[in-house]
Each structure stands twice: as structure tokens, then as C-alpha cells.
Amino acid sequence: MSDNHTPSPQERFNNAVEGLRRLPATGAVTFRGVTSSGNQKPGVIVTQNITATSRDLSVASVGLTSPGIAVVVAHTGRDLAPISAVPEAQEIALLPGTVLYTGRFIHAAGHDVELIEQLTPDGSQDEWTAHLTAQAVAELTSTVSTIITNAQ
Fold first, then answer.
1. CB of 71 closer than 8 Å to CB of 144
2. CA 130 to CA 119: how far, in whole Å?
3. Each residue of 24-51: b (16+ CB within 10 Å) or e?
4. Which of the four pLDDT bands, split at 50, 70 and 90, describes residue 40?
5. In this structure, are residues 140 and 104 in contact, taking their beta carbons and an 8 Å threshold?
């Protein structure tokens, strides 16, 4: 007897998330081709879906044609290359429930780039910690400037 049950969209989503959770967590600096609004105050968001990022700026920003550029400093992303049909896309997925600090912008190679940082629990029940120091942000800005310049 065969099971003719067709999974619902929610079941498919849950299965995808469960599969991603089985991949090892990895820290990575990645990019997205969308940003928060420039007039938004910095703040914390919790992702509700799978959030796609890429280590490759050209992939994330569709060859620098996207409406914005964000650099994402992730601590628990999932490297999709081992299971991807297009491993050269260098995709890193952030799972639902990832806590992100958004709304900060750096200026790099003539572009306003949103800096998105994954926060990590500090050990107490509801406290989250940022790890980027001013020096780390300055070094990241320099690196992102070089990456943007090379992508143009």
C-alpha cells in the first residue's frame, strides 16, 4: 500500500529547515542584495524564514544590480555548497529564529552597505551579544570596499 499524502507547504518548509539543521553551523561573512530602509533605526529582528546569503557579492547582488548591498556577519549559517545544484553560488542559509542586529550602514567603495550582525546568546535567558568591535567594523569596511571594487 502506498502513501499518497502530498506534503503541505508548511510541511515542506519544516522538512527543509530540519534538513538544514543537520548541516554543520559555520561562521561566515556573506552578502545580500537587499537592505533595510536607510531611515530605519538600528534594531534587532528575529528571522521567520530561511534567509539566503552568499559569500559571493556578485551572486548576492546580481552583479551589483540589486537595490542595495548588505554584509552579513553570521555565526551559525549553514553552508549549502555540499548539497547545492550550483555550489559556486557559495550560499549560506540562516535558519528561522536567527537573531540579527540590522540598520547600521557603512560606506564602502561609494556604496552605502548595511551591516547585519548575528547576535549570540550571552548565557542569560533573554540577552544577546554583538561581537563586532569598532576595529573589526573598520577592517570589515576595508575588506568590503576591496570586494566591491573587484566586482565592478
1. yes
2. 5
3. eeeebbbbbbebbeeeeeeeeeeeeebb
4. confident
5. no
Nearest-CA neighbor of 53 among 28, 36, 86, 82? 28
Q: What is the pTM of this model?
A: 0.88
Q: Which amino acid is at 113?
A: V
What residue has cell string 547545492?
Answer: 84
Beta bridge partners of 93: 52, 78
- Helix, strand or coil, per DSSP, at residue 54: strand
Q: How far apart are CA 152 and CA 29, in angstroms?
A: 19
Give 3-state DSSP helix, strand, coil % of the chain, rounded to 5.
25, 35, 40
